[in-house]
Write a structure and sequence with these properties.
α1 packs across α4 and α4 runs antiparallel to α5. The protein has eight helices and two strands; from the N terminus they run ααααααββαα. By secondary structure, it is mostly helical. It has one domain.
């Protein structure tokens, strides 16, 4: 395999990772890519779980192709076949945690220690958008903003 083929495969897998992340987080592709964290999260979760991630991505792709997001049982299939699976469940939960918190938890550790991925992961975590807030000390909301009510989130 040459470098161009490696990059094409890597790009494909990251795209599948983002598609799965859409189903797990409820955010759309543009919002997830807008964080700038997709590749770093994909590489982090793959480093931790190795081949389980590839199997998970192919399982998710099969669910997308058979059920599609508009299908009545789509969420049930994601819940049952991914979140409820003994192998895929911990991986999927860590993908959710990566996007929302910028960290992952080592579920095989009895103490279930959590690790922050990077300063960028903290700043770009979805938790700030979900809470209608900003990361303290990282993104400034503007002078006087502390006196304003948080704006309501208008997500579907």
């Amino acid at each position: 395999m040459n470098q161009a083929q490696d990059e094409e495969i890597s790009s494909y897998l990251i795209d599948q990772f983002v598609n799965l992340s859409r189903a797990l987080t409820g955010y759309d592709k543009v919002e997830l890519l807008g964080t700038g964290m997709a590749e770093q999260y994909y590489r982090t979760i793959t480093r931790i779980y190795k081949e389980s991630v590839l199997r998970l991505l192919f399982e998710a792709k099969a669910i997308f192709e058979v059920y599609g997001e508009g299908h009545a049982d789509f969420e049930g299939q994601i819940s049952q076949r991914i979140l409820g699976d003994i192998v895929f469940g911990p991986v999927a939960k860590n993908i959710i945690q990566l996007w929302y918190m910028g960290s992952y938890t080592n579920f095989s550790d009895p103490n279930q220690t959590s690790y922050i991925i990077s300063p960028d992961a903290y700043v770009n975590s979805l938790i700030w958008q979900a809470a209608g807030s900003h990361p303290a000390g990282a993104k400034y909301p503007g002078y006087g903003s502390w006196s304003l009510e948080p704006r309501p989130e208008t997500r579907d």
